[in-house]
């Protein structure tokens, strides 16, 4: 689920992000509202028509205008997590759906993506995660070295 662009940085209870660093608030919360966050397996199966969502949950911050005091307003939420983990040899491919097949074919010059096993897909995701983790750590370490050398 993608939310409308309601730009907010500090006062959201649930938010999602695209590839940019800007977070957007989920507009409706509370009793009777379900927010469904889809992971990358569903993105793969849906030809990226249902994209994976980066998300975070933060406390709502309220500011008292009289004395500029900031207080954290506690929020109640219920989370039910369902992880699907296919067998290692299961093929991840877009199911035969006319709408998605047309999109896949148009986006890839009429060459549909080859199915991939869950095991191969999982290995690729793990490699990419480790690579991004190393890059984040390297950037953090180089920033720390710069800060130490300028002190």
TrEMBL record:
Q: Where is this region: Disordered?
A: 1-23, 129-151
- Residue ranges annotated as compositionally biased, kind Polar residues, are 1-12
Low complexity composition bias: residue spans: 135-151
The record, for InterPro entries, names: IPNS-like_sf (IPR027443)
User: By what name is this protein known?
Assistant: Uncharacterized protein
Q: Identify the taxonomic lineage of the organism of origin.
A: Eukaryota, Sar, Stramenopiles, Ochrophyta, Bacillariophyta
């Amino acid at each position: 689920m993608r939310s409308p662009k309601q730009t907010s940085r500090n006062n959201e209870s649930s938010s999602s992000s695209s590839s940019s660093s800007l977070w957007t608030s989920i507009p409706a919360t509370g009793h009777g509202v379900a927010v469904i966050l889809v992971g990358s397996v569903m993105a793969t199966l849906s030809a990226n028509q249902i994209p994976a969502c980066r998300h975070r949950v933060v406390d709502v911050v309220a500011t008292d205008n009289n004395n500029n005091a900031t207080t954290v307003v506690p929020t109640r939420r219920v989370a039910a997590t369902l992880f699907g983990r296919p067998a290692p040899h299961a093929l991840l491919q877009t199911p035969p759906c006319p709408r998605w097949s047309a999109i896949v074919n148009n986006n890839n010059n009429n060459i549909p993506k080859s199915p991939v096993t869950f095991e191969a897909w999982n290995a690729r995701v793990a490699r990419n995660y480790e690579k991004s983790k190393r890059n984040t750590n390297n950037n953090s370490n180089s920033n720390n070295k710069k800060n130490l050398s300028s002190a």
